[in-house]
Amino acid sequence: MIIYGTALLAFCHLAGLFLGDLLGAAIGVKTNVGGVGIAMLLLIFLRLYLHGKGLLPKETEAGVGFWGAMYIPVVVAMAANQNVVAALNQGRTGRAAFGLGRSRLVCRLHRGAVAHRPRQHLVHQRPATRRDLNEEPAMIHMIDKVLIQNGLVTAFALVGLIMWVSSLISRKLTFGRVHGSAIAILIGLVLAYLGGAFTAGQKGLADLPLFAGVGLMGGAMLRDFAIGATAFEVQATEARKAGLIGVVSLLLGTVLPFIVGASVADAFGYTDAVSMTTIGAGAVTYIVGPVTGAAIGASSDVIALSIATGLIKTIIVMIGTPLAANFMGLKTPRSAMIFGGLAGTVSGVSAGLAATDRRLVPYGALIATFHTGVGCLL
Q: pTM score, two decimals?
């Protein structure tokens, strides 16, 4: 049954978080250390064991596969749930990380939001009466009621629409060079800015009552649950073909971007350990950043910067891979595995290799998938 797969994932997830808490207590820190990464490793080993015993039917695999497929939509919701306004207001770092300047349009949106923001300390707003409600169009009132009371369902519908629009933009405007997932995450960050600007809140789009469900969909619980499910797609037996150099490329692809990201954060004024670690982790992937930031207590604006950092890296890999394929010698499955280990972003590697040679996509994405688990663990 499908529920068995979801239950299997839940068991690994809870066990990983528990072991992460134990590890944190053992080394004397008050946080979960690598719980998501441990959960992914547990799922990989358990999958290999059950497959060997013939105890993993397709229906059970589908229960895990569904949550793995929800990985990108949950990330989009998570992006829409960040304090992007505060991140942009940090100065040069925020604008550089997002690839945005203080354009006239952004400034006008921000000033307009401030101008139209209700002055709660001057105006006493009386509670709505039955007569006020009756004056509203009945249909609009019913629609608002349905959407607000079913916030999580509304979030699923909104993110589904974003993903559909992003796929159209990817095909029609970029001709597949920029993957739809990257465009969807960018749209999520833009919506987070608009929501934060018009509400003066700290949760992006989730500060609007109509989209409060985005906060739950993109929250830590569903985010980590969906991330853990992606480990189920890892074929450890195939990954062995990359050999020792594949392991080295995986470690280099995790450590070097972290060092670069942390150094850039320090250069732009984010000198505290939490911010440097979070932004450095974002340079590994746009998932490792928020998972790490949430574990060590980073603020929402710093987490938003880490997502943007990983997003920019993903787009660079997507566009740059076919241009540099000949120089890098991307012609064999083994070379694709090594490249996936060095690049470390599944969507970026998949899109880049698809534009180079579609036959190499499974091999590059296979090793790149390990980056999430290794990054979260480290």
A: 0.68
